[in-house]
Amino acid sequence: MKTTYLEEEVMKKLVQLGALIMSLTLFAAGCGKEEEKTPAQKLYPVSINGSEIKVGETKVQTLLDAGFKVTVSDSSADFSEITQFEIDPEQELEANTYYSGGSVWITDSIFANISVATEEACRMGDAVIARLEFSLAAASDEELAKIAFDGAPVNEITREKAGEMCPDFTGDENMWLQYGTDYKYDLNFDADGKMIKFAVEKEYDVDWLQNNGGAE
Question: What is the pTM of this model?
Answer without folding.
Answer: 0.76
